[in-house]
């Protein structure tokens, strides 16, 4: 895969493999991440995203292939790599008995940051995370969105060159997700290289300059969100819902109206350039779906096309 930057990549992998006894979690993947890029791994649970992130984070050994992070070999220079990374794990691992401020202070001392430099750094990060007013509060009663923002603030305590985010908004409500997206967008524009995993297609479209789609440990597509949608989907999708048990028969009756039809358990997806025209054509044939809507194609449609299943399967 080509790197969008002429500079040396921040992360480079070739035939990267991760095996757990007889289970092949990551199956010989190639990718690179440029400085200042926001790069994503998109796929369902079990696709190999988290296993890849743990290898990049120098906390899980590589089973095969080549991996370089910041130009270094994780097997030989793990501590040097980790000192330059920020990591946001899939599940928050904050110290619930400490205050918001104390969580950042303890983590900063772990990196050996002098106290005179650490205190203003903590104030800066609390402002960034919109948590300055909660600095003296214990962590346990905070909302899920606040805890997630604190975890991200903590990951920035050492001014990392690469920030690894594993499913950063899982479990958050829509408002908290958008606040978090805004914080990450600001980091990217400050020059931090972002690498994230997600199974939310809207999150990948919002945050990623470029991404790879993973399934069963392999990369099945790579490109920007717009490139992937243009290559693997039509401009619009008409979603039709018929009574239970009728989808297969209805798909046969209207198959010629779309470039492609996907039959899902609860609806039909018609991939077309003009969704409204497709809905009218369906009705002209005397068919009356329970409901019908038109939307633009998304990365969900890309994944369905490439793997035959939904991102949330």
UniProtKB/TrEMBL annotation:
<keyword id="KW-0813">Transport</keyword>
<dbReference type="InterPro" id="IPR003593">
    <property type="entry name" value="AAA+_ATPase"/>
</dbReference>
<dbReference type="Pfam" id="PF00005">
    <property type="entry name" value="ABC_tran"/>
</dbReference>
<dbReference type="InterPro" id="IPR027417">
    <property type="entry name" value="P-loop_NTPase"/>
</dbReference>
<dbReference type="InterPro" id="IPR017871">
    <property type="entry name" value="ABC_transporter-like_CS"/>
</dbReference>
<comment type="similarity">
    <text>Belongs to the ABC transporter superfamily.</text>
</comment>
<keyword id="KW-0067">ATP-binding</keyword>
<keyword id="KW-0046">Antibiotic resistance</keyword>
<dbReference type="GO" id="GO:0005524">
    <property type="term" value="F:ATP binding"/>
</dbReference>
<protein>
    <submittedName>
        <fullName>ATP-binding cassette domain-containing protein</fullName>
    </submittedName>
</protein>
<dbReference type="InterPro" id="IPR003439">
    <property type="entry name" value="ABC_transporter-like_ATP-bd"/>
</dbReference>
<feature type="domain" description="ABC transporter">
    <location>
        <begin position="11"/>
        <end position="241"/>
    </location>
</feature>
<keyword id="KW-0547">Nucleotide-binding</keyword>
<dbReference type="InterPro" id="IPR050763">
    <property type="entry name" value="ABC_transporter_ATP-binding"/>
</dbReference>
């Amino acid at each position: 895969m080509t790197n969008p930057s002429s500079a040396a990549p921040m992360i480079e992998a070739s035939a990267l493999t991760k095996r757990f006894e007889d289970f092949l979690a990551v199956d010989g993947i190639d990718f690179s991440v440029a400085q200042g890029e926001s790069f994503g791994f998109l796929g369902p649970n079990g696709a190999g995203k988290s296993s890849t992130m743990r290898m990049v984070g120098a906390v899980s050994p590589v089973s095969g292939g080549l991996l370089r992070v910041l130009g270094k070999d994780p097997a030989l220079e793990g501590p040097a790599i980790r000192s330059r990374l920020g990591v946001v794990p899939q599940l928050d691992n904050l110290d619930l008995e400490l205050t918001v401020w104390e969580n950042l202070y303890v983590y900063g001392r772990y990196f050996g940051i002098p106290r005179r430099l650490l205190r203003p750094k903590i104030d800066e990060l609390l402002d960034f995370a919109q948590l300055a007013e909660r600095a003296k509060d214990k962590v346990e009663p905070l909302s899920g969105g606040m805890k997630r923002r604190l975890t991200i603030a903590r990951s920035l305590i050492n001014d990392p060159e690469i920030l690894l985010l594993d499913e950063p908004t899982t479990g958050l409500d829509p408002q908290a997700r958008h606040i978090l997206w805004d914080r990450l967008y600001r980091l990217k524009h400050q020059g931090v290289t972002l690498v994230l995993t997600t199974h939310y297609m809207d999150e990948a479209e919002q945050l990623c300059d470029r991404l790879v789609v993973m399934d069963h440990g392999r990369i099945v597509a790579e490109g920007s969100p717009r490139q992937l949608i243009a290559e693997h989907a039509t401009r619009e999708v008409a979603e039709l819902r018929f009574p239970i048990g009728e989808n297969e028969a209805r798909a046969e009756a209207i198959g010629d109206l779309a470039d492609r039809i996907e039959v899902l358990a609860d609806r039909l997806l018609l991939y077309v350039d003009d969704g409204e025209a497709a809905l009218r054509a369906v009705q002209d044939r005397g068919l009356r779906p329970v409901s019908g809507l038109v939307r633009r194609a998304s990365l969900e449609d890309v994944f369905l096309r490439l793997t035959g299943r939904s991102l949330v399967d």
